[in-house]
Write a structure and sequence with these properties.
Number of strands: 8
Structural class: alpha+beta
Order of helices and strands: HHHHHHHEEHHHEEHHEEEHEH
Largest sheet: 4 strands, mixed
Shape: elongated
Low-confidence stretches: 2-15, 18-31, 38-43
Helix content: 40-55%
Distance between the termini: 97 Å
C-alpha cells in the first residue's frame, strides 16, 4: 500500500482500475488552499470563501463557537452573505415541526393569577360574589369556542316538580336567554335594567320570565344573546363590588326571597349547571367549580333544606316523622347528618322538624353520605332522589325526605 502507487494513473498494480483507497480530497471549505493564517494574538484570519461555506452550518446552529463568532462578524461587513444567511435561516424555520396554535388552557388562569398577585384590584369583588364571577367567565369561554350552528343544538332543561322529573326542550341560545332573564332578577334588585324590557311576564318567577322572553322572540334566540348576557353579568359583578353592602339586600324570586349574597351563589350554581347542559349538547369537556366555590354552593343548599322540608310538610309530601322532636326556634332538634365527600366536602347537621331549630349531633337520627358533585346534581334535578348514590344509615323516612327535598331545590 505504498503512497507512490496510489497516485499513479494505472493504480497500484498497473491494471488501470481505480485504487481501492482513494487519495485525500481537497477540503470543500478551502478549495485546496492552505489553512488560514493565524493573526497576531492568536485570532484566525478567515477568508470570504471559507465563511461563505459555513453559512449553512451557522443557520442550523451547527458551528463551533469560534466559527459562529467569525461568521456573525463577517455578516456585519458583507451584504451578500447577510442576505444569504437570512434566506437560509428562513428555510431552516420551514423545516422545523410547526407548533400548535391552540393556547394553553391554563394560560388565562396563570396570567390572571400573576396580575392579581402583583396588583390587587382597587375595588375587590366581594368573596360571596366570586363564585358567580368565576362561573360566568367559564361559561363565556365555552360560548366563545362553539360555532354558529352549535348555538342551535338541542338542550333539555331538567328539574323536579311535585316529586316528578320535569323537563323543557330548548337550544344552547335558549339556555343563555334563560340565564339572562333569571339573572335579571338580581340586576333589577341592584337597580340595573331589566333584560325583559317592555316584555310583561305573567309572574315574577324565573320560569314565567323565561317563557315570556322566549315567546316574545320573533325568531329562535341566536348567538346574539351572548352579548347582553355577558354585559349584564359584568354589570352585576361591578355593581355589587361598589355597593359596599354585606349582601343582605333581598332579591325576590316571586314566591320567595334570598339575600343578595345567597342569590349570587344561586346564580353561580345555575350558571355551572346550565354550562354543563350546554357542554353535553356540543360534546365539550367541562369541569366542576373549584373546591372552595363548590363548598359555598353546597352550603347554600344545606341551609335551604330545612325550609324546603317545612314547605313540603305543609303540602303533604314530607312525613312528620315517627318520633318528632318539636322545639322552639333556636333550640336543638331532630337532625340528619349530611356528609359531603370529595371536592367541596364537609358536614352539615340538617334540622328535620322546624326550619328555626338548630342541628344537633345529640339528636342525630340519620346519616347520609354523598359525593359533592353528585349532591349538586341532585339539587339541580339532574339525578332522581331514588337513584342518588348515597351511603345511608338511620331513619329511612328522614333520609328519603331530605333527598327529595334536595331535588325540590331545582327549578327551571
Amino acid at each position: 500500500m505504498g503512497s507512490a502507487g496510489a497516485g499513479g494513473p494505472g493504480g497500484a498494480d498497473g491494471s488501470g482500475r481505480a485504487p481501492r483507497i482513494p487519495i485525500p480530497r481537497a477540503s470543500v471549505g478551502d478549495g485546496g488552499r492552505p489553512l488560514p493564517d493565524v493573526a497576531p494574538g492568536g485570532a484566525v484570519a478567515w477568508e470570504h470563501q471559507v465563511l461563505t461555506s459555513l453559512l449553512g452550518a451557522w443557520a442550523l446552529a451547527a458551528c463551533s463557537a469560534q466559527e459562529a463568532a467569525a461568521v456573525e462578524e463577517h455578516l456585519g461587513e458583507c451584504d451578500a452573505c447577510a442576505d444569504e444567511a437570512l434566506r437560509l435561516r428562513e428555510a431552516v424555520g420551514l423545516l422545523q415541526r410547526p407548533e400548535s396554535l391552540d393556547l394553553d388552557p391554563a394560560l388565562r388562569t396563570r396570567v390572571l393569577d400573576g396580575c392579581l398577585e402583583r396588583r390587587p384590584p382597587r375595588i375587590p369583588v366581594p368573596e360571596w360574589a366570586r363564585p358567580y364571577d368565576a362561573e360566568a367567565a367559564r361559561l363565556d369561554a365555552l360560548l366563545q369556542d362553539i360555532g354558529d350552528a352549535e348555538w342551535h343544538a338541542p338542550v333539555r332543561l331538567r328539574w323536579f316538580e311535585a316529586d316528578d322529573a320535569a323537563s323543557r326542550r330548548t337550544t344552547v341560545a335558549g339556555v343563555i336567554a334563560h340565564l339572562l332573564t333569571v339573572d335579571g332578577l338580581v340586576a333589577v334588585a341592584l337597580g340595573l335594567a331589566d333584560p325583559l324590557g317592555d316584555i310583561t311576564a305573567p309572574a315574577p318567577a324565573p320560569a314565567s320570565r323565561t317563557e315570556a322572553y322566549w315567546r316574545a322572540s320573533h325568531y329562535p334566540p341566536t348567538r346574539a344573546v351572548r352579548a347582553p348576557w355577558r354585559e349584564q353579568s359584568h354589570s352585576i359583578v361591578r355593581t355589587v363590588s361598589f355597593t359596599g353592602d354585606a349582601g343582605r339586600m333581598p332579591v325576590s324570586y316571586g314566591d320567595f326571597e334570598l339575600p343578595l349574597h345567597d342569590a349570587m351563589l344561586d346564580r353561580a350554581f345555575e350558571c355551572w349547571v346550565h354550562a354543563e347542559d350546554i357542554a353535553d349538547a356540543v360534546h365539550y369537556p367541562y369541569q366542576p367549580p373549584s373546591a372552595r366555590h363548590l363548598n359555598s354552593m353546597i352550603d347554600l343548599a344545606a341551609r335551604m333544606l330545612p325550609g324546603i322540608l317545612a314547605a313540603r310538610r305543609r303540602v303533604g309530601p314530607a312525613t312528620p316523622g315517627t318520633r318528632p322532636h318539636l322545639v322552639t326556634a333556636g333550640e336543638p332538634g331532630r337532625s340528619l347528618r349530611l356528609e359531603i365527600e370529595g371536592s367541596g366536602g364537609g358536614e352539615w347537621l340538617i334540622p328535620l322538624d322546624s326550619p328555626g331549630a338548630v342541628g344537633s349531633a345529640e339528636h342525630e337520627v340519620a346519616h347520609v353520605a354523598l359525593d359533592g358533585v353528585e349532591f349538586c346534581r341532585l339539587a339541580a334535578g339532574h339525578v332522581p332522589p331514588a337513584e342518588a348514590a348515597a351511603g345511608q344509615a338511620g331513619d329511612r323516612e328522614a333520609i328519603r325526605d331530605v333527598l327529595f327535598a334536595a331535588a325540590s331545590l331545582s327549578r327551571m
